[in-house]
Amino acid sequence: MVLFGGRSGEHAISCATAGGVLRALDPQRYDVLAVGITPTGRWVLADPDPERWAITEGRLPQVEDTASHVLLPQAVDDRDVQVLEPGELPRALGNVDVVFPLLHGPFGEDGTLQGMLELADVRYVGAGVLASAVGMDKHMMKLVLAGHGLPVGPFVVLAPGEFDRDPAAATAKVESLGLPLFVKPARAGSSLGISRVEDLADLPAAIQAAAQHDPKIVVEAGIVGREIECGVLGGHDGDRARASLPGEIIVTDARHDFYDFEAKYLDEAGVELVCPADLPDDVVAKVQDVAVRSFEAVGCEGLARVDVFVTPDGEVVVNEINTMPGFTPFSMYPRMWQASGLEYPELVDELVRLALHRPTGLR
C-alpha cells in the first residue's frame, strides 16, 4: 500500500512524493494499492496514475473524497484491506504485506500513523513510533541529538501562548540568541511557517506565522555556513546505516531569504541543488559520520535525511533530521543516493525490502 496525503499542511508535497514512488515501483514485482488520506482524514481509494499527483505549473495536488472508503486490518491476525462503498457490503481488496507511508508532517510523519500500523502488526517503511515523534518535534529532536553529543546550534523554545502572555519576557529570552533568528513551528516541515528575523520588531509577526502551523515554537540562532544535506539508509541484518554523498542547497534568487516553501516547490529556477556537494574529503566524511550518528541517536529505521550546516572552518552543526524526506525523483534525498550509485527505482525497492525484513512488534 502506497499511503499519502493526510491532514497536515504538507498534504500536497505528500501527494507529489507518492507520484514519484508509484512511478518507480516495478509492476512486475509488486501489486500496488494506492490509498489517499483527504485533508479531513478520510481514507479513500486513490488513482494510481503518477501523473495525477504531480505538481504542475504551480498546481498543488490534493486527495479528494470519493465514495470508496478504505478500512485497514483490525487485528494482528488480519491482513485484509477492505473498501466500503454506498449500499454495498465491505469488499476485500487483498492482503497488505507492507505499507509505504509517504505522509509528511503531523498526523502521519509524527508517529501517529506508525502507532496505528503497529497496533495492527502491519510492516511499514521508515521510522517507528518514537523516532518519528522525536524527528517531527524540533525541540525534542535537538535535546536527543545534544544528549548523544552531537553538535546542535543555540535555540530556545516558546511554549504555547508564552509570547502572548508576556511578550517582553519572551522577547528577552529570544534576544539572547542574537540576530539573525529563524522562527519555526516545532512540528512542521517543508519550511512551512518559517521566518528569518533580522530585526526584533519583526518577531511578533514571525511568531504569529509559525503559530498558524503549531502552537509550540522553536527559535534558532542563525548559523553562518553552507546548507548541506546527507541521505541515510538503514542497514540489513544489524549492519550500521549507510550515508550517501552529501548535497548542497544554493538559493540563487534574491527573493528568497532562505530555502522556504516557495523556493522548494514552486520556484525551481530560484534554487540550485548541487549533488554531490563540493566539499573536501575530510568534511564529506565528517558530514556522513554526523548523519549516521544522528540517525542512530533518534532510533531511525529505513531512511532519513539529515540537514547540517558546514561552517567556514569546516565544523558540522546539525540543523535537523527528517524521517520521511521529500521523495520525488527531483528531491534531494533520491538525488544524493543517485550520486552515490543507487538509482531512484532501486532506492524505492531497497526501502520496501528493508521494511519486509523487519520484524513487527518490539525490536
Automatic annotation (TrEMBL):
Record: active site: 10, 190, 331
One GO BP: peptidoglycan biosynthetic process
Pathway where it operates: Glycan biosynthesis; Cell wall biogenesis; peptidoglycan biosynthesis
EC top class, as a word: ligase
Manner of cofactor binding, per the entry note: Binds 2 magnesium or manganese ions per subunit.
Ligand binding (Mg(2+) 2): 320, 322
Keyword ATP-binding: yes
A Pfam family reported for this protein in Swiss-Prot or TrEMBL: Dala_Dala_lig_N
Single Gene Ontology MF annotation: metal ion binding
Binding-site positions, Mg(2+) 1: 307, 320
Compartments it resides in: Cytoplasm
Catalytic function, reaction form: 2 D-alanine + ATP = D-alanyl-D-alanine + ADP + phosphate + H(+)
Domain ATP-grasp residues, every copy: 142-353
Keywords of the record: ATP-binding, Cell shape, Cell wall biogenesis/degradation, Cytoplasm, Ligase, Magnesium, Manganese, Metal-binding, Nucleotide-binding, Peptidoglycan synthesis
Binding residues annotated for ATP, in chain numbering: 138, 182-184, 190-191, 220-227, 319-320
A GO term from the CC aspect: cytosol
InterPro entries: ATP-grasp, ATP_grasp_subdomain_1, D-Ala_lig_Van_CS, D_ala_D_ala, Dala_Dala_lig_C, Dala_Dala_lig_N, PreATP-grasp_dom_sf
EC number: 6.3.2.4
Required cofactor names: Mn(2+); Mg(2+)
Job description of the protein: Cell wall formation.
UniProt record similarity statement: Belongs to the D-alanine--D-alanine ligase family.
Record's protein name: D-alanine--D-alanine ligase
Organism: Cellulomonas rhizosphaerae
Gene expressing this chain: ddl
